[in-house]
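ARCHIVE CARD
CATEGORY: sequence design from structure
SOURCE FIELD: tokenized fold
FIELD CONTENT:
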């Protein structure tokens, strides 16, 4: 369980009162997640998720919370942050920034099938369309600059073969990001971490509907095709081998394209962006694995998986037809 900050009922009640909500009837720490402290809170008004931010500072949060509110109000299945009487979305708990959002129903899926990938692809495209009038911008804090800074920190923990792979990929990504084709890619505020554990599905087994997507705390302004690559690398990759599962990838992209048709340039650069996305999570998992922060109980995710996703994306690039 990644509970970095213990929250008492008294502390939760004080915050809920500021948000116009009654006292907590139940407060339950959430075991999954590795970035923030999360609790489910029940009040007479409903079910909520209380997040205490462990890495992000107060002034970084308005971008994420306003993006969630923008998407929720545009009809997207995204939790809406609750404001206080002053209209602020960022609150304080135990001296740290905190937020309260409505709890979505359903469960995340360990093994999404074609039907789930289609729903996620369509929702991703609609979110990309819905940010056209979102006024805030913030760089992706796990973008190329972060990767270039992190690679030398984790490289000493790699064997010679993996170290060589990392060097080769850094050079490739620098070249890709400097290209004219990359510079022309359409951008916007994207989730940038929309893994299968950041979406919930509700309904009867085999007929589940996507009830929502959450955990926008790695969102940033980046290319839409990078966001699509992050999603393909998780929803459509075989977790045992790290290989792309073509039927799922094709189903997801087809559903995405029915809502928002990617340009020829976006499709041409998708293989390189899949490598960028694989490298981003390889690096963050390496950092969490070798340089862990203190926590009550922390389950870092294995970095090797994304090394294999990267190797597969290099060895068997998927070039979808326009
Ligand atoms: N709005 C919500 N509705 C329902 N459940 C939620 C909601 N937000 C979070 N959760 C639950 O809390 C868990 C942890 O949330 P989240 O993934 O945001 O944590 P995190 O520490 O930021 O995680 P990560 O490691 O994925 O970055 C989720 O797996 C989900 O079960
Ligand atoms: N989705 C990430 C964790 C949060 O960034 C991973 O699976 O490594």
């Amino acid at each position: 369980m990644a509970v970095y900050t213990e929250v008492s009922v008294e502390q939760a009640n004080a915050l809920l009162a500021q948000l116009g909500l009654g006292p907590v009837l139940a407060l339950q720490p959430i075991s999954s997640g590795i970035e923030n402290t999360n609790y489910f809170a029940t009040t007479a008004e409903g079910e909520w998720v209380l997040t205490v931010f462990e890495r992000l500072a107060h002034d970084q949060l308005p971008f994420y919370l306003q993006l969630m509110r923008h998407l929720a109000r545009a009809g997207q299945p995204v939790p809406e942050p609750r404001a206080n009487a002053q209209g602020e979305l960022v609150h304080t708990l135990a001296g740290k920034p905190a937020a309260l959002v409505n709890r979505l129903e359903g469960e995340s899926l360990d093994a999404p099938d074609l039907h789930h990938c289609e729903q996620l692809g369509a929702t991703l495209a609609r979110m990309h369309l819905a940010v056209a009038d979102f006024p805030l911008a913030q760089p992706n804090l796990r973008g190329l600059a972060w990767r270039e800074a992190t690679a030398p920190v984790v490289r000493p923990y790699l064997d010679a073969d993996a170290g060589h792979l990392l060097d080769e990929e850094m050079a490739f990504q620098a070249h890709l990001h400097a290209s004219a084709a990359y510079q022309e890619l359409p951008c916007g505020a994207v989730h940038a971490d929309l893994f299968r554990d950041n979406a919930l599905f509700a309904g009867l087994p085999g007929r589940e509907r996507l009830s929502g997507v959450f955990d926008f705390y790695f969102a940033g302004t980046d290319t839409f095709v990078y966001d699509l690559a992050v999603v393909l690398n998780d929803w459509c990759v075989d977790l045992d081998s790290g290989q792309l599962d073509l039927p799922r990838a094709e189903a997801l992209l087809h559903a995405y394209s029915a809502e928002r048709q990617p340009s020829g340039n976006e499709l041409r650069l998708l293989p390189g962006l899949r490598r960028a996305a694989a490298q981003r999570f390889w690096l963050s998992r390496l950092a969490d694995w070798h340089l862990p922060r203190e926590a009550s109980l922390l389950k870092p995710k294995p970095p090797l998986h994304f090394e294999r996703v990267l190797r597969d994306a290099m060895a068997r690039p998927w070039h979808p037809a326009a």
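CARD ANNOTATION: The longest strand covers residues 37-43. The pocket of L-homoserine (ligand 2) is lined by residues 34-35, 193, 195, 218, 281, 284-285, 301 (CB under 6 Å).
SHELF: design records, drawer C
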